[in-house]
Amino acid sequence: MVAGVAATTTAEAKRQVRAFEAIGCDGILAIMEAYFPVGDDGTYDYFRAIAEAVTLPIVLYTNPKFQRSDLSLPVIERLAAIDNIRYIKDASSNTGRLLSIINRVGGDLQVFSASAHIPACVMLIGGVGWMAGPACLVPSQSVALYDHCRKGEWDEAMALQSVLWALHQAFAKYNLAACVKGGLVLQGYDVGVPLPPQTRLSPEGQEELRETLCRLGAMEAVAK
To answer: Which of 25, 105, 172, 185 has the smallest C-beta neighbourhood within 10 Å, fewest atoms?
Structure first.
């Protein structure tokens, strides 16, 4: 179990990671929330403090589209030197940036794809996996994609990736929380709707998601 930690203050982030370690989580996925932009030194200090507060492995998470402050390459390189900071999930949509990270710190920091990237392509250039909302709806297909990539079966991986990409596009078109909740409901899981102010999946979104999940073989539970 990898717990997500997001905070606007270092003190609150440290409180959260310590609480998650105390209840037995296996790792931390850490992101910084900021109303005002934070410089490189402040960003480094925030993630360093999280790492030093626990013994758990840390996954750095950056999503420049939604953040006021990004993890720059120099900061990533500095953080990679900290023993329990071992991974990074980058949702920048710039796959070249991922290769730059791998080239700089590939020996110390392993890269995960987010849904902003094509996971098979990220694993082809040296990434170790992917962490993304769409996988919640197609877990077996996602594991199959990972297995193909690990074995170097790139033709099979890309054939599966091409089909899976339609699900990524639906998530990009509609709200991520709405897609996860709406998709699980379509599959027969009574998880309810997103909490306001997030909105529920629209009727057209439900139909598009239904068609995509059927094509992926992920709707057997409701088909019966």
So the answer is: 172
Contact 46, 11 (CB under 8 A): no
Q: What are phi and psi of 2, to 5 degrees?
A: -105, 115
- CATH code that applies to domain 1-131: 3.20.20.70
The single residue listed with the structure tokens 């270092």 is 10
CA atoms within 13 A on the CB side of 165: 11
Q: Residue 1's closest CA among 63, 84, 57?
A: 57
Whether the Cβ atoms of residue 69 and residue 34 lie closer than 8 Å to each other: yes
In this structure, what token pair is assigned to residue 28?
A: 């931390």
**Is the pTM here over 0.70, yes or no?**
yes
Place of tokens 């994609």: 145
Domain boundaries, the chain: 1-131, 134-224
Reply yes or no: is the peptide bond before residue 74 cis, omega within 30 of 0.
Answer: no
User: What kind and span of H or E run contains 220?
Assistant: helix 220-223
- The tens digit of pLDDT for each residue in 3-31 reads 999 999 999 999 999 999 999 999 999 99
Name the 3-class secondary structure at 187. coil
Cβ-based neighbours of 218, under 8 Å, separated by 6 or more:
137, 138, 140, 141, 187
In this predicted model, what pLDDT tens digit does every residue of 147-195 receive, in sequence order? 999 999 999 999 999 999 999 999 989 989 999 999 999 999 999 999 9
Residue 182: CB partners within 8 Å, gap ≥ 6? 193, 200, 201, 205, 206, 209
